[in-house]
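Narrative of accomplishments. A recurring question from our advisory board has been how the design workflow behaves on a single, concrete structure rather than in aggregate. To address it, we present the structure tokens for one chain from the evaluation set, followed by the sequence designed for it. No filtering or post-editing was applied between the two.
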């Protein structure tokens, strides 16, 4: 009851305290470093290979599966998703957060160079 009695007996003091809280709150809020749309780099690398004039089943057998097998051994791989369509193979490699994507991309390039001789010579370079 003392707080209620104090508030009723001293309304100007309570008004000043409330005003100080509002002014300080708005001052600190304006200096708050809040970014509504932060720049996020997703840890994903895509390997796209074209091989024109070949069916999707052959693309999967000749390009997609060997590429998936090669890149699955790279460190910090979270998941591998791929799709094959007529004349196109796309393999998307997702890495764990915090993985250095530049080193991972270089590792993928190295793995793809190792299997380059096993891919069809007519196909474009991945």
């Amino acid at each position: 009851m003392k707080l209620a009695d104090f508030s009723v007996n001293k309304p100007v003091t309570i008004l000043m305290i409330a005003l100080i809280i509002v002014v300080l709150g708005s001052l600190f809020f304006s200096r708050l470093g809040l970014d509504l749309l932060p720049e996020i780099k997703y840890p994903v690398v895509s390997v796209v290979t074209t091989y024109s004039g070949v069916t999707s089943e052959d693309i999967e057998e000749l390009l997609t599966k060997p590429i998936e097998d090669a890149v699955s051994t790279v460190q910090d791989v979270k998941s591998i998703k791929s799709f094959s369509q007529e004349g196109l193979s796309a393999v998307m490699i997702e890495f764990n957060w915090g993985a250095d994507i530049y080193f991972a991309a270089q590792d993928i390039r190295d793995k793809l160079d190792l299997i380059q001789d096993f891919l069809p010579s007519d196909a474009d370079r991945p």
